[in-house]
C-alpha cells in the first residue's frame, strides 16, 4: 500500500505542473492582449481600434509562444534531472 502511494506522488506533481502551465498558457496571453490594447495601443499611442487590435494580437501570440517555450523547457529539464528509481527486491 505504501509503495502505491509513492508511485502516485510523482504523478500528482506532474499533474499539478501541467495544470499550472495550462492556466499560464491560457491566462497570460489573454491578459497581455487586453493590457496591450487598452493601455499601450489605445491609451498611450492612440491608434485606431482595428490597428490596436491587430498589434495586441501580435503581442498575445508572442507571449503565447514564450509561455509554450517555458513549458517545453521545464518539461525537458525535469526529465533530464529525474532518474528512474532502482527497484529493490
TrEMBL record:
GO cellular component term of the entry, any: cytoplasmic vesicle
Nuclease among keywords: no
Transmembrane segments: 21-41, 53-73
GO aspect biological process, one term: vacuolar proton-transporting V-type ATPase complex assembly
Keyword tags: Cytoplasmic vesicle, Endoplasmic reticulum, Membrane, Transmembrane, Transmembrane helix
Protein name, per record: Vacuolar ATPase assembly integral membrane protein VMA21 homolog
Species of origin: Mythimna separata
Record lineage: Eukaryota, Metazoa, Ecdysozoa, Arthropoda, Hexapoda
